[in-house]
Amino acid sequence: MDAQTMGKDRDRRGRVNWSIVGPGLVLIAVLFIVASFLYDQKMHRTLLEHEPERPDIPGRNLASSTLTASDEGKDFLRLWESKIRRLKGAQYDLEIVLNDIEFFRALSRFEGRGEQEEKERYKAYLKEYRFDQKPVFTVTMHSAKGRLFDLQPKEWMTLRVKEDEEHPPHHWAESKRSIDYHREAVLMFDGRHGHPIVSPELRAVELIVKDPAGKSEEVLHWGFGQ
Fold it and tell me: Tens-digit pLDDT profile for the chain (226 aa)?
């Protein structure tokens, strides 16, 4: 077999091999492109549908810059500022916010994307905190010295809804983010024998906060938003 014949034979085998391998490579490339497209679409939907974990302190994940970017956020920020009370102690600073019906309505309105989601968020908060029956507060403590876990703030606080009607704390839920220099918690009060405290007639509440040493007390006042 001369060199020319051998060359033609190699060319023929190359064309035969490519006729077999070529379509397979094209198919693999097409499948890769389709798979990449489907993966990108799935990731895009995941990002759009992802909801960050709701904080264990209502509204605590909202930065002021986020709130001021919308009318709903500004409304909630104004309401939150109207419901915060501050006390300054020798060893710590204390902030207490009333989380009443009005508070959760404004928070749900800001967090919800449309009326339906707003209603769903409000129902979720209602199921978790029962604020239609129990007065709910968020309590924040700060101390540069630390050792806040040595203190028992639940024991210092009493709810007063009438001149002759006071209630001890029912539940103290410490935040997972609390540390020895900064504590956060949800404080709830329940009525006697499980009867609700909150009613359409409730217009104001007071929180009596005693000094840890028991030598003095402060009385904090709120109008109760329905």
Answer: 555 555 455 555 555 455 655 566 666 766 667 566 555 555 545 433 444 456 788 988 777 778 888 899 999 999 999 999 999 887 889 999 999 999 999 999 999 878 899 999 999 999 999 999 999 999 999 998 889 999 999 999 999 998 889 999 999 999 999 999 999 999 999 988 878 999 999 999 999 999 877 778 999 999 987 6
Sequence spans of domains, the chain: 64-144+152-223
Architecture of the domain delimited by 64-144+152-223: Sandwich (2.60)
Tokens of 114: 């449309």
> How much is the pTM?
0.73
The rounded distance, in Å, linking the Cα atoms of 31 and 202 is: 66
Q: Where are the alpha helices (DSSP H) in the chain?
A: 3-49, 64-67, 71-83, 101-111, 115-129
d(CA 66, CA 94): 24
